């Protein structure tokens, strides 16, 4: 009986020491990280609700606390034509950038006081109604990252793994020009639907 009591006392003391040690090494989130988490969380919900997209992930680059890059990833149903994806990427990226730059808590931690299009990203993973990635020739991934829009098609290779089939790129400025021409009627609308 004495051994059982000593055993439980020993276990209790060990548990107490371990829990005290663990509490001393508790990581606290910095105000900068809290501002980023709040801004990213808000934008995920805002974009999800406004554009009916399914949040899929984030990328945050903050080496040594310096906010350098923020990206949101979403799933969406396809297939969609490149022109429609271009328009959505530009609209979503502009909303994301605008929301970030109007967040005073976040802007207080930015070197320039604001972010530009080359410091954010939006990525769409297109799926069919069964949840499967789209096959070539349909665009499976569309993104804007560091001011470059990219459209990728995928297919299964011989080992039955997904592989890139084609990749097209355009700068943010080129994409904006195409959208402006399209809205003015200078480019045939069928090509950009």
Question: What percent strand?
Answer: 25-35%
Q: State the share of residues found in helices, binned by percent.
A: 40-55%
Mean pLDDT: 87
β-strand number: 6
Question: Which spans have pLDDT < 50 for at least 5 consecutive residues?
Answer: 188-193
End-to-end distance: 81 Å
Structural class: alpha+beta
Number of helices: 5
Main β-sheet description: 6 strands, mixed
User: What is the ordering of alpha helices and beta strands?
Assistant: HHEEHHEEEEH
How are the strands ordered across the major sheet? 1-2-3-4-5-6
> How large is the radius of gyration?
24 Å
Which term fits the overall shape?
Answer: globular
Q: How many separate domains make up the residues?
A: 1
Structural write-up:
A six-stranded mixed sheet has the order 1-2-3-4-5-6. The chain has helices at about 1-25, 30-50, 80-100, 105, 170-185, and strands at about 55-60, 70-75, 120-125, 140-145, 150-155, 160-170. The model is unreliable at about 190-193 (pLDDT under 50). The chain has one domain. Helix 3 (about 80-100) crosses helix 5. Strand 1 (about 55-60) and strand 2 form a beta hairpin. Helix content is about 40%, strand content about 25%.
